[in-house]
Amino acid sequence: MILHVVQHLAPGGLETLVLEMLRFAQPNHSVFVVSLEGSKAQAQQCWSKLSAYQGQLHFLNKKPGFSGKTISTLTSMLKGLKPDVVHTHHIGPLLYGGIAARLAQVPVIIHTEHDAWHLNSRKSARLQSLLLKMIRPHVVADANFVAEQIQTKLNYRKVCTIHNGIDCQKFQSGNQATKRNLFGLPANKTVIGVAGRLEAVKGHKVLIEAFSHLTPNTHLAIAGDGSQRDQLEAQVRTLKLEDRVTFLGLVDDMPSFYQSLDLFCLPSLQEGFPLSTLEAQACDIPCVATDVGGVKETLCPINSTLVEANR
């Protein structure tokens, strides 16, 4: 049995990757996911995709802040389930899942770090360094950049890089006209797309400002939702771009979204090894992306390019 521990199961790259690990698990492997935050009802309401895996999902509904009770609850769960492997993702799940796995004497503990921006905080770096020494997991980085940051800032050398992957049977080139009709996007304009959580760190504000300087024969399609949506919609109105920008909300059919585009843009201010650029390129869509984290490791130099972040 393999048990993954994540902070939450809101739509995102890391969360999508973990669900893909469930989907592609070997038939003789039992695989489960524990979400520290949220409830099953809340998560499924926000992300319908979870309903296909509901028998494999557990939610601890942890509130903000440190919770010793969560460690106790998770330790009891692990002692009951007796997993062969606990796999934590990011620093919060390492704290709760890693300690619980040690207390429950789980044979194998793996920790994957999906980005490294939090290591710029001295407090976070000290905490992660302490946890790695206490828990002694097998440490995986999803990008060479992330591995280098762990080795440099934590002086932790035993790190291997395993790049994220995508399902290339799912993400392929398609009929652009048909897909544009599906999303109500203009057929006769150059369509630029962006996908991700609508949060400040994802750089949508900068992208919309830059887009406002392009010619009127361009259109911006924004897939995703988040806390910044109202602000971004207000920015679009202020710039008088209402007829040139489409907010699609959460999109379940991401291959069709990419196939509707002429260009995909990743304007993030911080990243690890993003899936979206891999997915877009697999659909034969060129990318323009900010040079942050491990983004450059995802791009094909023939038809995609890097730009400076926040410019």
TrEMBL record:
Q: Which UniProt keywords apply?
A: Transferase
Q: Which domain of life is it from?
A: Bacteria
Give all residue intervals belonging to the Glycosyltransferase subfamily 4-like N-terminal domain.
Answer: 11-169
InterPro entries, per the entry: Glyco_trans_1, Glyco_trans_4-like_N, Glycosyltransferase_grp1
Q: Does the keyword Membrane apply?
A: no
Task: Enumerate the spans annotated as Glycosyl transferase family domain.
Answer: 178-301
Q: Which GO terms describe its molecular function?
A: hexosyltransferase activity
- A Pfam family that the UniProt record links to this protein: Glyco_transf_4
Matching PANTHER family, A to Z?
SULFOQUINOVOSYL TRANSFERASE SQD2 (PTHR45947)
Q: What is this protein called?
A: Glycosyl transferase
